[in-house]
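Record 1 of the preview.
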Amino acid sequence: MGLKMSSYESANLNITATGENEAIQHLKQAIFAGKPWYIALLEAIGLWTCSEENHNGYCYRYLIDGEAFDWLLLAERLCMEVAEHIPEEELTDLLFFGRLPEDVSDDEFREIIGSAKYQAHLNYVYGVTIEKFIVLAVEEEIEKERQCYVFSDDVESVVDSYQRIYGADQTQLLRWFREEKGYAKTKRMSVSELQEFTYWLFKYRLRNCDKARVASDTRKGLEYFRRQKQAGDQ
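->
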C-alpha cells in the first residue's frame, strides 16, 4: 500500500526523532514508503519508549506494574495517527479481536518489537488475559454445579469464583490490592486499575496457591481462551 507525501501536512514530517515521537515518525514514513501498515506498526511499537502517557485527555498505561506490556493498547494509540490509511475492517479486527491482516509468527513478532517488549507481552498474556479467562472458566464450573443443586438445599455451599481460585472473595482481594498499592478505596475502578488488579491477582495466585492447583487453573484459563478464540474465528 503506497501513500503520497502530500497526504500529510509538512509539519507532521518534522517530529523530533526521540522516544514516542520517533516511533510515530517511523510509522508514518514507513507507510509512505509502501510498507504494509501492520509491519510499520509493529516496528513503531519496537521504537516506543514511554510506559504511560496522557494523550487527548485519556491516560494510556502500556506497562502494568513495570512488567506486563499491553501492546494492543499501544497499537490503538499509534493507529489513531494513521487511521485514515488503514482499511476500516482491518483496524476493527486488530483493535477488537487482536488480529493482524496477515499471520505474523511469534518469532517474527519478537524480532520486530524486541525481546524485552516480547517478554513483557507474554507477562500480559498470562498475567492479565489468561487470568481473566481463569475466572470465567471457574464461573462456568460453578454455574454447572449450581444447576446440579437446583432441587436441593445445598446451593449455598457453592463458593464464588474468586474464593475458589484465590482463597478470598473479590472484595477482600481488592482491599488487599489497594492497601498494598496505596490506592484510595472507592466504589469505581478505572480500566487501568482493573488491569493492574488482574495482574496482581495473577502474582498473588502464584505466591499463595498450591502449585498443582496453579497449573490446573492456568490450563482451564488457556482452554477457555482457546474455545472463545475458535468461536470468534468461525
